[in-house]
């Protein structure tokens, strides 16, 4: 496992280990940090803990929506494959 040490969300030296590549960690960090900065601008006097809770809920919602889209796409693709199979004769001659 690779260990990472990031400065994120007004916290210094957040350390963690993961099997994700450095590129994935960096992209995730940039995405979450940009959302956090946007929340700070619009959040006014909210504490960092409250901003992080809102950020967590927002990212979790994004994840759940993507999972739902993937499930719907999978269902659609299975339906298409079934239609293709139904068009192919059982005993080609």
TrEMBL record:
Keywords: Cell cycle, Cell division. Pfam families: ZapA. One of its GO terms (biological process) is cell division. InterPro entries: Cell_div_ZapA-like (IPR007838). This is Cell division protein ZapA. It comes from Taurinivorans muris. The lineage of its organism: Bacteria, Pseudomonadati, Thermodesulfobacteriota, Desulfovibrionia, Desulfovibrionales.
């Amino acid at each position: 496992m690779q260990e990472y040490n990031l400065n994120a969300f007004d916290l210094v030296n957040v350390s963690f280990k993961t099997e994700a590549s450095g590129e994935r960690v960096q992209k995730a960090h940039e995405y979450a940090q940009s959302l956090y900065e946007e929340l700070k601008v619009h959040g006014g006097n909210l504490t960092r803990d409250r901003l992080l809770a809102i950020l967590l809920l927002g990212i979790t919602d994004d994840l759940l929506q993507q999972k739902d889209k993937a499930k719907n796409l999978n269902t659609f693709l299975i339906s298409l494959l079934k239609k293709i199979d139904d068009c192919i004769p059982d005993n080609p001659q």
